[in-house]
Amino acid sequence: MTEPQAPQGELHSIPALLARNVARYGNRPAYREKEFGIWQSWTWAEAADEIRALALGLLVLGLKPGDHIAIIGRNRPAHYWGMIAAQMCGAVPVPLYQDAVAEEMAYVLGHCGARFVLCGDQEQVDKVLEVEETVEGIEQILYTDKRGMRKYDHSRMNALADVQAEGRAAAQRLGPELDARIAAQDYDSTCVMLYTSGTTGKPKGVVLSNRNIIETSKNTAEFDHLRQREEVVAYLPMAWVGDFIFSVGQALWAGFTVNCPEGAHTMMTDMREIGPTYFFAPPRVFEGELTSVMIRMEDAGRIKRWLFRHYMEIARRVGPALLDGERVSLGDRLAYGLGNIFVYGPLKNTLGLSRIRVGYTAGEAIGPEIFDFYRSLGINLKQLYGQTEASVFITQQPDGQVRSDTVGVPSPGVEVRIAENGEVLYRSPGTFVEYFKNADSTASTKDSQGWVATGDAGFFEEKTGHLRIIDRAKDVGKMADGSMFAPKYVENKLKFYPNILEAVVLGNGRDFCTAMINIDLNAVGNWAERNNIAYASYQELAGHPQVYATIREHVEAVNRSVAEDEMLSGCQIHRFLVLHKELDPDDGEMTRTRKVRRAVINDKFADLVTALYDGSSSIYTETEVTYEDGRKGLIKATLKIEDAQVFGDWARKAVAA
Predict the structure, then answer these.
(1) CATH number at residue 615
(2) What range defines the domain where residue 400 resides?
(3) Is the pTM of this model over 0.70?
(4) What is the pLDDT of residues 581-604, one digit of tens each?
(5) Looking at 426, 452, 471, which one is the last position of a domain?
(6) Is 484 in a helix, a strand, or coil?
(7) In what order do the strands lie in the sheet with 467-472?
(8) From the CB of residue 468, how many other CB atoms can be counted at a distance below 10 Å?
(9) Per the database record, which ranges form the AMP-dependent synthetase/ligase domain (predicted)?
(10) What's the rounded Cα separation, in Å, for the pair 530 and 533?
């Protein structure tokens, strides 16, 4: 594959794109932030002035080319500016997850050797000060929010606003040096370093170049016709590659506006006020919103519930066809129009999705029922398939070719093929440069021709050319009788139900499949309140007989659906239990992007796994948990294990056994 050259006009770096946007869209809004209930706005010209002042201030503090500067905090314009300012100085921004515990933060800071750390607030500063006991090399700590910082030792600690003030004062003296550093950036300079989620081990630092980010942003922006008129809401972790591409790469390439909400507690209000036109969310966000909708409907009056059910039935039948421009009868169009007045329009407004032109979901497979629900409302939700190592995009769904069971066709500029063992391979301009300080992993992931092994199993459909992902290659296995085992396929079907937050399906090499299930405390708690069922804790509610009965109904409904898939019918769940605690990243059971760490769960809950397969009707267990303040504790519980009905050939096998 020949390397693409820099775009016309020498737009070979993020700072170069910023300068172009100032010249082209100078007075248009570039960033907005809501603070204390008020939206503040910066044009491209104003943002560029803030960024340059910060870059000059970093030079005053001694930031050198090649240095790594860690950025830890919530989505704020100042933090995005910090990334661009670092690039101007020839340094490498390394965003971290703001909810990472000190131990996780210590690994990344130590591994990248960060000399500078930009923190959002006092909480993040405290974590950095804590990890300095084991991490060497941190020389400067910057912070955005001054609250609570007055009594700290400021000998090497500065407020971001003060650094900018120093930069403005030094503009005449250091301006030529900064301009020289900006000019030295080329297409192969490092743009950012992002750490993987560490599903199977320690996170790896993925080095992405300007070429990776800009080519990917250019190609995908053109794919979906993204222009400067778009509005996006930046709310996902800045350490995640998706946020970097959407809120930095594509935002700088297309020149659209990045809106930063005040916080998670105001997210829905902020979404309604902004009305994003381009939106991305992982499946868990769409699952959570659907759960909230279903809870509200259960609390609604009889007439509202009837209207919702009646018009949602019409939406499921008609909505996707209308969205794809297919022929629909006049009667169905009129019925859908009435539904839009009474149900779909108000619902989309409540969710903040009224103006969505393009929406994407990725990160893991989304349940077909959840996906179809949003498209039935007229929301142009599509799927993409990607990785950090690909600068996100590997495949995308073109408009008019959207389905719940595929992830689309190769993104522009991306080549995809299937290896003999069924693993998906790709190469593209977005393919990462290397894993930082990990040549062995780089070599085992990317070959000499640039092909990257994704670790996912999949295949191309002959008729459509769309890619279907079965599961993680390492998770796909075989049952004892040789039938395919693909846990994620079943887990996503289970998570369609609002009562189920998370599920872990077991069965590789076994005679049958079992499952460990997390209930959704909001949904099930709401049901308990409506039915006057008292409970004192998650554990007590999870073990309630009526909760078990409801979960069994969901499991059996999923089994009935899975039985219809000839290839995966062996993945029906024969036995299940409801876990006594929520799977938690702080306990190591999930990554910060909420992907299940199966190896950890198999080891940590080995006694539960044994009980699921030895015929036990209950199991006593003790589990270590981590509290919010970092203390460790022990949860003790006796869990019930129940059987579930299976269907088709597997039902006959069960009877024979």
Answers:
(1) 3.30.300.30
(2) 283-354+356-471
(3) yes
(4) 999 988 889 887 778 888 889 999
(5) 471
(6) strand
(7) 415-418, 423-427, 452-460, 467-472
(8) 17
(9) 19-435
(10) 8
